[in-house]
Amino acid sequence: MSGPTVLSSTIIDASAVDYVIVALYFAVVLGIGLLARRQVSDSLDFFLSGRSLPAWVTGLAFVSANLGAVEIMGMSANGAQFGLPAVHYFWIGAIPAMLFLGVVMMPFYYGSKVRSVPEFMFKRFGTGAHLVNSISFAVAQLLIAGINLYLLGSIINALLGWNLTLALIVAAIIVLSYITLGGLSAAIYNEVLQFFVIVAALLPLTILGLHEVGGWDGLKDKITANAGVGGSATADQQLNSWPGTALTGFSSDFWSIVGIVFGLGFVLSFGYWTTNFVEVQRAMATDSISSARKTPIIGAYPKMFVPFITILPGMIAAVLVTEIVKTKEGQAVSGGAGGTVTFNDSLIYLMRDLLPNGLLGVAIAGLLAAFMAGMAANISAFNTVMSYDLWQRYVVKDKEDGYYLRVGRWATVAATVIAIFTAQLASNFSNIMNYLQTLFGFFNAPLFATFILGMFWKRMTATAGWVGLSSGTIAAVIVAFLSEDAFGSWSTGVLSLSGQGASFVAAGAAFVVDIVLSIVVSMGTQPKPAAELRGLVYSETPKEDLVDPEEASHPWYQRTMPLAGIALVLVIILNFLF
């Protein structure tokens, strides 16, 4: 984060028209916040949009909330460094879990009328697991918001030449303004707008880049010609998604596949998508249980094509942009947001080389949209958990609704300020994607283990809930600390695990330890009576509680199961094609 107060030059020379486009975008964002404020009369409006939004709105917001700074910059960096194996973060590490969330888990969330995932944990396991989950979730959101803010400040610094600290503060104030004004409605409607702005920014970049390299065949030829130089992956490793050894860092094809399928595709993916309230909160804001189920399923369709506007530009930059080509060859090149060019700078340099002024302004606005979408999603989820799961339940009880609405707004301000400091923590890690996946291993993997066991095994007890959560998190931290670089400069290197493979192993360890200890503890403690588990455990919940009776009368393209089935078939086809 340290550096000169003012940059003497910027990577991209933005013109007046680019600044006008960016300013107009910010004006629209704040305008949406002001309009949404008129609809906020109570805490349900602020935290869950009054449960009034249609599925298509929440479906796009569901994707946009995840299409943030880390996704765009991190996945373009992965594309530049590893090539096609990076698609596993989408086709293995997202779509199946999104479909599972919509088909199986959303009915439990929506039907129980909870305001957060920790609140669901309270109903199933009681105070111990609820408190552990609430605290870990709140900490995770502050850390991840800091990642988004750090990348936002770094990119504004590189693009526009602003002082990095000033860029962080200005960006934080803008996000704070529209979340504090309009609550979740402002966040969700801005996320829908941001989805289209992001696509408008990245799609032309992809098309122009493919044209420049001679199409897909030309790109493959150039990657093949440059492969293996300076220790980079072979052409086969970069142009085929399986077995993905370049991505995992495993020498064995078999263990690489196991790591991707179990570590990423099951533990990390299901842990993130099915228990992360940042995403679930969007579905909870819908107008019916049917819309809630369809929210992640509708989101799966654009999600499966996001690699073509994130990973593909990174692959193009790795053969087209001189600085990235040299970086991939192992050379140290001065420049970039941090003084030395890294793969994280791939998208910025590709924009510099391909986009004319005007279109460049749209691209800058798109990046800013992505950064703010991610940070706003983290903060809007944090303020709900802080207000209700921690403050109302453990600090100040039985106050009027308006009091907790004010607490939520103050929690938003506090989270934004804290994110400025956690942004500096993120700067200690050379690979932001490694850092993010490590955090998911800490917080999401053990939560998913507790959640899935408790939802399908009625014998699991309250004691097992908090013991499993705590022990799983500790197991993931130990594995990450012993690996080579999952903890950045603080890792010990005792285990020969590096790259994103280390986070897959840490997540797997968290899941297994959590499951084993939860079973052992459950066998020695007293479970809840079956009568208290309706709506919380699958076997004890009548089918009519889990479906919308009116959905059967809808045409097939508006029903949950056909939409999920088509999405699953499409993602299987994509895996075979690439």
TrEMBL record:
Localization, UniProt: Membrane
Keywords carried by this UniProt record: Membrane, Transmembrane, Transmembrane helix
Record carries keyword Membrane: yes
Keyword match Iron: no
Transmembrane spans: 16-36, 56-77, 89-110, 131-153, 159-181, 193-211, 254-274, 304-325, 359-382, 403-423, 435-457, 464-482, 502-524, 560-577
Membrane topology: Multi-pass membrane protein
Entry-linked InterPro entries: Na/Glc_symporter_sf, Na/solute_symporter
Record Pfam families: SSF (PF00474)
Entry similarity comment: Belongs to the sodium:solute symporter (SSF) (TC 2.A.21) family.
Protein name: Sodium:solute symporter family protein
Organism: Nocardioides mangrovi
